[in-house]
């Protein structure tokens, strides 16, 4: 069985280049370079080289920008809403974790979910964080 991994990062769009015909990687993660493939509203998707077809990818980074999220309570509500959405779409929750805020850092949230399918398993790792005061 094939395992597909999707990492959903919740960050601001500062410095995020999203030209439709990117020829250079936008960023690298775990020594893999990622190229912009698709954007709609506040969601941006990136895949490695030779994975241009979004119907046949095996690794993907999705960046969601929550422009209306500016504090810890809003971030927690957003993380909970995403978790409920994953559950409503038959996601199997593998782990959740919240790191409480400190005087120096805002709270963060993490969700790991598996979506078993007939021919593959999609794994989603979502991290929710305020960056420059935005979710």
Label this structure with key terms.
135 residues, 8-stranded mixed sheet, 1 helix, single chain, disordered N terminus, mainly beta
Task: Give a short overview.
The chain is 13% helix and 44% strand. The protein is mostly beta strands and 135 residues long. The chain has one domain.
What do you see in this structure?
It is a single chain. This protein has 135 residues and is mainly beta. The chain has one domain. The chain is built from 1 helix and 8 strands, in the order βββββαβββ. It has an 8-stranded mixed β-sheet, covered by helices on one side. The longest helix is centred in the middle third of the chain and has 17 residues, at 72-88. The model is unreliable at 1-5 and 9-21 (pLDDT under 50).
- Helical content stands at 10-25%
How are strands sequenced across the largest beta sheet? 2-3-4-5-1-8-7-6
Q: What is the molecular shape?
A: globular
Could you report the average pLDDT, rounded to the nearest whole number?
A: 84
Number of domains: 1
DSSP helix count? 1
What is the gyration radius calculated from CA atoms?
A: 15 Å
Beginning-to-end CA distance, first to last residue: 35 Å
Instruction: Find the structural class using helix and strand composition.
Output: mainly beta
Which regions contain 5 or more consecutive residues with pLDDT less than 50? 1-5, 9-21
Largest sheet: 8 strands, mixed
Strand content: 35-45%
Helix-strand pattern, N to C? EEEEEHEEE
Strand segment tally = 8
């Amino acid at each position: 069985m094939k395992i597909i991994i999707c990492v959903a990062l919740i960050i601001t769009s500062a410095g995020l280049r999203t030209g439709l015909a990117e020829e250079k990687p936008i960023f690298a993660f775990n020594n893999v370079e990622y190229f912009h493939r698709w954007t709609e509203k506040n969601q941006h998707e990136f895949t490695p080289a030779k994975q241009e077809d979004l119907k046949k990818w095996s690794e993907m980074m999705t960046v969601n920008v929550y422009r209306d999220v500016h504090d810890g309570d809003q971030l927690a509500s957003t993380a909970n809403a995403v978790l409920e959405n994953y559950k409503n779409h038959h996601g199997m929750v593998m782990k959740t974790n919240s790191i409480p805020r400190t005087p120096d850092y805002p709270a963060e949230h993490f969700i790991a979910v598996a979506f078993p399918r007939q021919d593959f398993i999609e794994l989603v790792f979502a991290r929710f964080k305020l960056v420059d005061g935005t979710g």
